[in-house]
Task: structure prediction
Amino acid sequence: MQLRYSFRLYPTRGQQAALGRAFGCAHVVYNDAVRARRTARENKLPFPRAGELSRRLITEAKKTPQRAWLGEVSSVVLQQSLRDAESAYSNFFASLKGERKGPRLGEPSFKSRKDTRQAIRFTANARWTHRRRTPPAPQDRTEGAEHQRRAGVITQALEAVDQFELARDCERIADQLIDAFADSGRAELMAAFAHALPMRAAVQFCGMPAGSTDTEQLVDDLRISLDAAEGDDPVAAYGRVGARIQQLVKEKRESPGADVTSRMLAHPAGLTDEEVVQDLISVIAAAQQPTANWICNTLRLLLTDERFALNVSGGRLSVGQALNEVLWLDTPTQNFIGRWAVRNTQLGGRQIRAGDCLVLGLAAANTDPQIWPDSQVCAENSAHLSFSNGEHRCPYPAPLLADVIARTAVETLLERLPDLVLAVEPQELTWRPSIWMRGLTALPVQFTPVSH
Ligand code: HEM
Result:
């Protein structure tokens, strides 16, 4: 007979936040394990073993931007969560074979976020205190004075980007991308234009030479690590991105130029090379995804809404209106995850407890019926919350740069291909299955072929 003790714990605020993180991460690893096994079964692949899942879902996942936060909790908690998924499967198989007493067990299912009972398991030698990770967390995952130090460097480095030069660069990048498909009369604009352009613009303002082979390789690796397609290896791609940005930082230390990287290195805050590498990757990632979807959602509006269709080819004004309307009604960053309450509080009549994870519903805030009582959103001002608010908001110069990139992209495309129309019916366009980012899976168009 074994003894069991029950304790009631009264964690401090910091401990509550750490526990909240550990619960969340254990939950994600469990669900990732169930998903990996279901996918293997659907694709008729061998059942993935525990060792392989531990490598893929914990060790390698921590190296990706999507799962880097797993590194913030004890790995014992993550391993134990994998073992729980493992036991659920062996019980299920034993039950199928009739080797297990009691009622028939169903296949393990995903754990729901709504379940209020959460469990994590530690072992005697698990690490309880949070140790600082190496490499350091990027600035968007730091807080207080440390966040201000890191975000201040980014803000000043972005502030010095010359907006006219950026517009010229974006026009050149847009022209090159359009040249690649202009003579065919058809294109899928998400891949061939909307995603590629902001990535190239960001890499360029960080100081990578345009058009060189390793810039092309970096652009491709960034695409894979941010938005992997079937068959891509995002972990390997992210590793190459880190190595190339490290090399860029080394080159700019030796020979600085008029670019974001050199300005970050020269900043009196004295960031280490490692911190600059981390922050450059987050700047490029933060710039690419939302700006790409802003461009695509604006093109969709211009091509599907009659109010814009009438004067789209001539009307620069209407491009500006469409860009702004999209930020109100189809904003790229719909919801933003990753805030934990540090104390008990109330918000909008709801109780929030210290340690609760909060999701910022930016799209919902923009269409709040309390600000728009007639349910008619008037998109003529720009007081939306699409760039968030508060200390972590999209840093001041970034929305201006995003506007230059998106506006130049859309205007150049419409100038070059004035009779651009959708190649499918508007209702056939599909949104990507994401609750965070609003963007299309594809934007197929056609136009009169032009040679350049
Ligand atoms: C040149 C383009 C852009 C750059 C360089 C950029 C950069 C950044 C950076 C560095 C952050 C992290 C801020 C921090 O933690 O202190 C951030 C956050 C954010 N950005 Fe941007 N961004 C760009 C475009 C956009 C666009 C087009 C949108 C949406 C329309 C957007 C929406 C946001 C949001 C919602 C956040 C999160 C703020 C929060 O945590 O509450 N950004 N951006």
Observations:
- The first strand starts at residue 186 and ends at 188.
- Residues 130-134 have pLDDT under 50 and may be disordered.
- The CA atoms of residues 55 and 61 lie 8 Å apart.
